[in-house]
Amino acid sequence: MDPKVTGLLILIFVLGASIGGGAVYWWSGEYYNPQIESLKIQYQLLDDQKESLDQQYLSLSVSFQNILHEKNDLDVMYNTLTEEFSSLENNYMQLSNDIRKLGSDYNESLDYLTDLSSNIASFQNTLDSYSVFIKSFQRTLTEVEMNKVNATTSSITNYSLDEWYNLGRIYDWLNNNIVKIQDNYFPQIVSIDTFLYKDREIVNEFEMGFIENYIQTPEFTVLKKQGDGEDHILAEYAMNYVYMKYTLKKMYQMYVGIISLENGNQHPIIMLKAGTNLVSIFDPIGGFRTTKNGNMAYENVDFEFTAYESYYNVKKTPLKEVTLYEINPEDGTSIIVAKGSLLDLKNVFN
Ligand SMILES: [Ca+2]
Ligand SMILES: [Ca+2]
Predict the structure, then answer these.
(1) Tell me: the pLDDT tens digits for 180-219?
(2) What is the per-residue pLDDT for 3?
(3) Domain at 132-349, CATH from 3.10.620, 2.60.290, 3.40.50, 2.20.28
């Protein structure tokens, strides 16, 4: 092809392309501008939203930091509480153990106190057996104690079965041989304060003192040949008892009595039931005994009580009251069989 033609064709092509491109450009500018505007608006909205989200993020970050702090505080509190709980738990265990220990200590102490109280009561009983006449029977008028004057009694009665004669001989022997002496002071529990706790008698406190009284055993009185009225009566009761038991082999019922006079004096006596409505009175301290023809004897109760009452009336120291005790020789325990005027005693001798 001719180079001139070729250059012309190229020129035409370049021109055509330039004109076509300009047309396309114009057309496309018309078409895209509204979209660009819309995108710009959207972009602006998104930008605003981003800003708002940024602010929210900031605010949330602050909140998060606050919450984080609170969590840390709570963690610290939780740890503190856990420690406190653990300490409380230990204390509780310790207290539980202490309470258990206290409970067992308390029971031990209560047992100890109960034993101690019972020992004090027993001690008081023992002391009283030395200084309180009625309570001395358990020490002075048991079979075992009374047997200890059997030899002396036998030597006095010489195994004679003449009962009233020999009871008289014993009466006389004691009157003639026992030197009257005053008692010494003997320790005594003078007051004792107890209270009941869980059915146990607990001694709260007690006070020791002295009493001017000492009760001798029959053996001691007979051996030392001295004593006061109480010692005399106990020795007489024991000698009568062993005489009846070992020589006479016939037991009359004997009672120890305490007679009270209108003047306030008191002293012990012996009454013996010699049969139905028959009585024999032994009152060496008052100087009275039941006699017939000058010998020891028994009498009808009505008759003898009248005589006994008259005896004290004549002495101008009238009888006020008598208490009669029956003694169990097994252990020296006693019961009151009658208490009142002589009239009130009569039933005992029926
Ligand atoms: Ca005495
Ligand atoms: Ca005495």
Answers:
(1) 999 999 999 999 999 999 999 999 999 999 999 999 999 9
(2) 60
(3) 3.10.620
Residues in the chain predicted with pLDDT less than 70, given as ranges, are 1-29
**Distance of alpha carbon 187 from alpha carbon 115, whole angstroms:** 22
Widest CA span in the chain: 212
Q: How many CB atoms lie within 10 A of CB 124?
A: 17
pLDDT at residue 32, as a whole number = 80
Place of tokens 């027993």: 122
3-state secondary structure of 190: strand
CA of 324 to the centre of ligand 2 (A): 20
Nearest one of 94, 327, 275, 310 to 102, comparing CA atoms = 94
For 11, the token pair is 């020129």
C-alpha distances in Å from residue 324, one per residue of 172, 264, 327, 335, 347: 23, 18, 10, 8, 12
**Residue carrying the six token digits 């602010």:** 55
The alpha carbon of 244 and the centre of ligand 1 are apart by a number of angstroms equal to 26
For residue 257, what are the β-bridge partners? 269, 324
DSSP label at residue 205: E
Q: Are strands 253-261 and 266-275 parallel, antiparallel or unpaired?
A: antiparallel
Residues with CB under 5 A from ligand 1 (ion): 183, 213, 228, 230
CA 206 to centroid of ligand 2, rounded, Å: 25
| Nearest ligand, measured from the Cα of 215 | 2
CB burial of residue 105 (10 Å; 0-12, 13-18, 19+): exposed
Tell me: the pLDDT tens digits for 303-320? 999 999 999 999 999 999
The CA-based dihedral angle spanning residues 164, 166, 170, 172, taken in that order and rounded to the nearest 10 degrees: 80
Element (H, E) at 338: strand 334-340
Q: What's the 231 CA to ligand 2 centre distance in angstroms?
A: 5
**Domain ranges for the chain:** 44-107, 132-349
Among the residues of the chain, which ranges form H helices?
3-131, 137-140, 143-147, 150-157, 163-177, 218-224, 229-242, 301-314, 342-345
Ligand nearest to the CA of 234: 2
